[in-house]
Design goal:
The protein has about 675 residues and is α+β, with helices and mostly antiparallel strands. The protein has four domains: about 180 residues; about 300 residues, no CATH class; about 30 residues; about 80 residues, no CATH class. Helix content is about 50%, strand content about 15%.
Length: about 675
């Protein structure tokens, strides 16, 4: 039979079902990242061809296939607004695999579907590169191998258990090869599609802040970044993670003002006791700003395994750290900060830190009254914070909607707000009183997990910086309204108000511990596997005595390793393996050894018929049993039907019963 005729053979029902499971496993990880109107119908189409009730029915006519594919492409363009990009192309491939499987009838079609499944499975790493993604891939990879095996010409003669065993053995043998290639093949340092935004990550803090914006972000329990401290862990009141600084105000929103790069860090002088060093691992945000404890005293450095460091950000006059490029991948850096709530700038703040709008007249009037009563700036700030603490202000994640004069409505009507309401109102009042001030957004707090800290989106926070006595000083009005937010976290401050935190309050301790353990495993995966970049690979080669391996050297190393691995697998089987005797032959040899112990051993070169004839002459009373034994042996070993394993086992049982009957007597 020619190769072409094999390709045109119809698919067996068992092969079609294995292939369908393969397609479903390749599609499943993408359900988390694609629109539901694409993922659910796409998987139902495949499932309809796997379920025995529908697998013989043509739910989609071959004539309808091309119009449906074109219609799907048009719908994808309509949904995304374009086609030649990551998301629309992955979506189209998702549907294309389902359509191709639905029309597959020949081995050639099935081979193409398997190849498409392999490509589709890899696309999930465009969205996430976690340990869970790798674990989701293992069953799909196994079924890809099983699908190829089931397409082979002789697979119809093998039962499913045999095919599963062979596929499992091949997969286990391939794991060391994949691990070696992972560390040996040169790493690509330029960003690729797989380095994009994690499907589970958020963009995090924004360049603009309006009432309720941080409250919405705080409803997410997603990880923002993780931190490893080189020495001690700061107390909760020092855990202010500085992010975007919002100095502009247009009457409704606070926003980042364009700034220039400054040399603040060169003139910063803090005692060694207040300075702490730590390493941050940030999730992708697509934004340029980095997070650091307030106040950063060094520029973030990416530390390579060979000891070299690379500065990956600069600092502007707002003392905000900005990366040279947007964070489109997991970013790990080391920096230092001073655990202080104040610092001295290089220059005096300008008019941009004072009011430039005529909004919120009630707040302006109150600020003027405070200014008339308190000439000292710090005393004025403390009076506002005292008002927040003593009046009927309420800290809530679900504040009411505010109108045009949002600060007036918050301060004098609703008095219900989240951290951005309090921080923005305090900055407005200070500016109205002639004190330069600005809003700082970032995160406050964190959760310790063994040797590192987890900071989540729910820890997002906003506070105030005011220029008093020649220094920028931090004031947190939230601490005046809900001090438990700073000391114990958002859950304690809100009680049962926040949905996610309400659920977590009823979580048993073992479940919380399991979640933290899983996070630590994922953190190690990110650091060891995902973080294995070109610098770490070069350091590995250097330790092996190869400073800068050329492409030819790497190819030779891979070829040598491949030869050694094949030798390790094949040589033992060639040198020591012997054909496994069939059940009838095994039982015959056992019988011969048993009779030999009784002095009735088989002579060298004696045929089975001659041997049994000699035994009958010596043991005439067992003639029937010996004859049955010989017939069973010959049937199992030499008849045409004897090639079937079940008949081998049946005849071997007959031989065993006959020989045991003789031995017992």
């Amino acid at each position: 039979m020619t190769a072409k005729s094999i390709e045109l053979q119809a698919l067996r029902r068992s092969t079609r079902r294995i292939l369908g499971i393969t397609v479903l496993l390749a599609q499943a990880p993408l359900v988390f990242h694609l629109p539901l109107w694409i993922s659910i119908p796409g998987m139902l189409l495949v499932l309809s061809k796997v379920v025995p009730t529908f697998d013989r029915k043509n739910l989609i006519s071959p004539l309808m296939m091309t119009p449906l594919v074109l219609l799907a492409a048009a719908a994808i363009v309509f949904h995304y607004g374009h086609f030649f990009d990551r998301d629309p192309c992955v979506t189209f491939l998702f549907l294309l695999v389902g359509f191709k499987f639905a029309e597959s009838k020949r081995i050639y079609d099935a081979s193409l579907v398997i190849i498409l499944c392999a490509f589709l499975l890899m696309t999930q790493f465009f969205y996430w590169q976690t340990l869970a993604a790798a674990m989701f891939s293992i069953p799909a990879i196994f079924f890809i191998g099983l699908s190829f095996f089931s397409l082979q010409r002789g697979s119809a003669e093998l039962d499913m258990r045999t095919m599963v065993n062979i596929t499992s053995r091949l997969l286990l043998q391939a794991i060391p090869v994949a691990m070696f290639l992972f560390v040996a093949i040169p790493r690509i340092t330029t960003p690729g599609l797989g380095d994009g935004n994690n499907g589970n990550s958020l963009t995090g803090l924004s360049a603009r802040m309006s009432p309720g914006s941080i409250a919405q972000l705080s409803k997410s329990n997603a990880v923002a970044f993780r931190v490893e401290f080189d020495s001690h862990t700061p107390v909760p009141s020092d855990l202010y993670w500085r992010g975007p600084v919002l100095s502009g105000y247009d009457g409704s929103e606070w926003f980042i003002l364009p700034t220039r790069i400054s040399n603040y860090l060169q003139q910063t002088n803090h005692s060694s006791d207040s300075t702490i060093q730590y390493t941050v691992t940030m999730e992708p945000t697509q934004n340029p700003w980095l997070l650091a404890l307030d106040t950063p005293t060094s520029l973030p450095q990416k530390i390579h395994r060979n000891g070299d460091s690379e500065t990956i950000a600069h600092i502007n006059r707002e003392r905000q750290l900005n990366s040279h490029i947007p964070l489109d991948r997991v970013t790990r850096y080391t920096t230092t900060s001073a655990l202080t709530d104040r610092f001295t700038p290089l220059s005096q703040p300008g008019a941009e830190y004072l009011l430039t709008t005529e909004s919120n007249p009630q707040a302006r009037t109150w600020a003027n009254q405070l200014r008339a009563r308190f000439a000292d700036d710090e005393t004025l700030v403390r009076e506002i914070l005292r008002s927040f603490n003593t009046q009927d202000f309420f800290y809530t994640l679900n504040p009411p909607r505010l109108g045009k004069h949002s600060i007036d409505e918050f301060l004098f009507d609703s008095k219900r707000g989240f951290c951005e309401h309090y921080a923005g109102s305090l900055v407005f009042l200070l500016r109205a009183a002639g004190i330069p001030a600005r809003v700082v957004t970032g995160y406050q707090g964190g959760e310790l997990n063994n040797n590192y800290m987890i900071v989540r989106q729910s820890d997002a926070h906003a506070w105030t910086e005011a220029f008093i006595n020649g220094q920028w000083r931090r004031f947190d009005p939230t601490a005046a309204v809900a001090p438990q937010r700073i000391e114990s976290g958002l859950s304690e401050a809100l009680g049962a108000e926040q949905g996610n935190n309400l659920l977590s309050q009823f979580e048993p301790d073992w479940l919380k511990a399991a979640k933290l353990k899983w996070d630590s495993v994922n953190y190690a995966w990110q650091h060891i596997v995902i973080g294995f970049d070109s610098s770490r690979q070069n350091a590995m080669w250097k330790k092996l005595g190869i400073a800068r391996p050329s492409a030819l050297t790497i190819v030779l190393i891979i070829l040598a390793a491949a030869v050694l691995w094949m030798a390790a697998i094949l040589l033992p089987s060639l040198a020591f393996s012997q054909p496994k005797p069939e059940p009838c032959e095994k039982q015959w040899q056992l019988m011969c050894r048993r009779f030999a112990k009784k002095g009735l051993g088989r002579n060298k070169g004696e045929t089975p018929e001659a041997y049994i004839g000699r035994l009958i002459a010596r043991l005439p009373q067992h003639q029937k049993n010996l004859t049955d034994l010989l017939n069973a042996y010959q049937t199992g070993r030499f008849s045409r039907q004897g090639q079937q394993r079940n008949l081998h086992l049946q005849q071997a049982r007959l031989m065993k019963e006959a020989s045991q009957h003789i031995s017992n007597q």
